[in-house]
Amino acid sequence: MKNKLFAIALMAVAAITILAAPILDGGDGIKNSGEAQTTTASVTTSDTSSATTTSDEAVTTTASQSDEPTVTTTTTEAETESATTTTTTSQTTTEATTTTTPEATTTTTTTTAKKPVTTTTTTKKPQEPVQNDAPSGTPVAEHGQLSVKGANIVDQSGNKFQLIGMSTHGLGWFPKAVSKQSFKVFRDDWNCNAMRLAMYIEESWGGSESLYLAQPETNYQLVTKGVDACIDLGMYVIVDWHVLNPGDPTTHTKESKEFFGKIAKEYGDYPNIIYEICNEPNGNVSWSKIKTYADEVIAEIRKYDSDAVIICGTPTWSQDIDKAKNDRLSDKNTVYALHFYANTHTDWLRDRLTQCYNAGLPVLVSEFGTCDASGNGGFNKDQTKKWLSLLDSYSIGYFNWSFCDKGETASAFKSGTDLSNIKAGTDQLTESGKLIRELFLKRDA
Question: What share of the chain is helix, strand, coil (3-state, %, to 5)?
């Protein structure tokens, strides 16, 4: 019995020595203090493999992992404020109980952590910088990216800028007109800073079905050839979805979105490009219906091109700009198309333009002719001059119809002219062509 008691006594002494050793020694990187403290932490998490607790007192830390994280911490009042536990961020539910004794206050906190919540943030791809590699001295090199300010188009410096140029006839019928050499003549000999590429989508003329919906790839290539030529020449270029037929642009909303999305994706980084999303809505189509169409197509363009100017046609062959005056599109870089033919549309339409311009509506004459609205007959020099004088006074741009050799009054070139290689001067020009060149050259550059 004595031996057993002696053995027990020795074991007790050994146990006391072992337990007291950390306090007496202050080793293992744990700082001694005058008052012993024990912290026990059990940390489990699916994302973190360790937990760290720092204090001025003796600390014991236990860590384990499980699928359902649970954190239990017991802390005495004497624990230092520098103690820190690092875990992954997750949603938690915490319950706390506090027990006070004469020696110390003990707070037990139990935190049950739910599985981490995943948050997905979608960041819009930043717009690529505009590529202005236009040759020195050209319109685009000097004026850069255009935008809309108030009732006018302005250049990169915020100055009013007039787009002045020629519109092709239907590209599918006059493919030779898509010519860098000819565009250069318009730039250098006519004082043009832009070209308009008119792409019919449904009309048939002379038995030819050379239209976008009939031959989309052929016509798309003609458009891109024209755009590329203008980029090389430092000119601005309007890509025109020519909806003379069917009149209601919503008839082909899907095709229009596909076409303009493709163009914008390819050329959206260039300051040259301007989009005309519906040429001449007609057939009593309402402005509200045009707006619905425009909102969809503009949204598609803006996916790839955030800052180009967009032209939206207005009812009655783009004459009813007043319908848009108090009911504008939400896109702030959009202008509204006005079309006139000098012998048909006279003071009454000029008065409408003045009222809308004074109300702050941004307008662009993306098509005009020197004759009757039919394009044939009624050549009217005086009314043409009145129109261009008014437009110049407001710094509103305009594009003449048309760069072709079709046998009609509105054509700028005589029948049989090689449209792929037009010459400077007036030898190849019709009366309409001579007048337009003369008026263009009288303008300031």
Answer: 30, 20, 45
Instruction: Of 175, 313, 179, 291, give the one whose Cα is nearest residue 247.
Output: 313
Cα of 16 vs its chain's centroid, Å: 76
Q: Which of 57, 280, 300, 408 is catalytic?
A: 280
Pairing of strands 147-149, 152-154: antiparallel
At 49-72, the pLDDT tens digits run 333 333 333 333 333 333 333 333
Distance CA 241, CA 260 (A): 9
Output the DSSP codes for 412-431: SB-TT--GGG--SSSTTB-H
For β-strands 105-113 and 92-100, DSSP reports them as antiparallel
H/E stretch holding 334:
strand 334-341
* Residues in CB range of 436: below 8 A, 6 or more apart: 166, 190, 370, 400, 412
Q: What is the model's pTM?
A: 0.72
Task: Give the residue carrying structure tokens 């030898």.
Answer: 427
Across 42-68, b (16+ Cβ under 10 Å) vs e yields: ebbbeebeebebebbbbbeeeeeeeee
In 373-442, at which residue ranges do the beta strands (DSSP E only) sit?
398-403
Active-site residue, from 79, 276, 367, 408 = 367
Determine contact, residues 199/219, Cβ cutoff 8 Å: yes
Before 210, cis peptide (omega within 30)?
A: no
In 10 A of CB 101, how many CB atoms?
Answer: 9
Q: Is 431 a catalytic residue?
A: no
Catalytic residue at 77? no
pLDDT tens track for 18-59 = 344 443 343 333 333 333 333 333 333 333 333 333 333 333
Residue in the structure block whose two tokens are 């999305």: 261
